[in-house]
Amino acid sequence: EPEVTQTPSHQVTQMGQEVILRCVPISNHLYFYWYRQILGQKVEFLVSFYNNEISEKSEIFDDQFSVERPDGSNFTLKIRSTKLEDSAMYFCATSAPLNSNQPQHFGDGTRLSIL
Amino acid sequence: GENVEQHPSTLSVQEGDSAVIKCTYSDSASNYFPWYKQELGKRPQLIIDIRSNVGEKKDQRIAVTLNKTAKHFSLHITETQPEDSAVYFCAAPPSSGNTPLVFGKGTRLSVIA
């Protein structure tokens, strides 16, 4: 069964540093999402991406965050200047290109630890 | 925007018993309701979903029911096994397109052997 692949699995970074989280979507999927999950809490939406542009973003997704698909394969989330409260699991999810809501398949996540 | 409430937050059942988890949503436009299972340290894994044109869907030991009038949907697990122990999340999108999911706070299910 095709899977969403995320790298790295764990990233430890000093506060104020930039991080880039990477996701390889399932090959025929065109809708991409980033979610985050603070330890022990629910999954929260960050941003959705379709047709090479952001389609929706949440309040969490402020100016420190950006997304892009630089090479037509990887879908990346960049946090420009990390804060302690950015520590969380970050999940990429993708879904197929049909008109109505399609199942979103999650990657294994990146555990981001800010020191 | 969409608001999803999930109950209970924790649930303990004896192996072989049934477990029921309930969710309510607020946005009448929502038409797709997935359930995810998340084991410790793992990704949310889609286990079943239902669309608004049906009231019930079953897949082996798991089933989901939907009441659009009351805006609630439920997950039913029968003949529970220890490997069913996990956190279960319901979710709903705020509209009918390919929109982001709004998740409930999760239910930690413990199946006691």
Describe this structure in words.
- The complex is a heterodimer of chains A (115) and B (113).
- With 115 residues, chain A is mainly β.
- Chain A is 0% helix and 49% strand.
- Chain A is built from no helices and eleven strands.
- Chain A has strands at 5-7, 10-13, 19-24, 31-37, 44-50, 53-57, 65-68, 75-79, 88-95, 105-106, 110-114.
- The termini of chain A are far apart.
- By secondary structure, chain B is mainly β.
- Helices cover 0% and strands 54% of the residues of chain B.
- In chain B, strands 2, 4, 5, 9, 10 and 11 form a six-stranded mixed β-sheet that branches.
- Chain B is globular, with a radius of gyration of 13 Å.
- The interface between A and B is medium-sized, with 27 and 25 residues.
Keywords:
heterodimer, A: 115 residues, mainly beta, seven-stranded mixed sheet, four-stranded antiparallel sheet, globular, B: 113 residues, six-stranded mixed sheet, five-stranded antiparallel sheet, 0% helix
Largest sheet of chain A: 7 strands, mixed
Order of helices and strands of chain B: EEEEEEEEEEE
Low-confidence regions of chain A: none
As a whole number of angstroms, the C-alpha radius of gyration of chain A is 13 Å
Strand content of chain A: over 45%
| Average of the residue pLDDT scores of chain A | 93
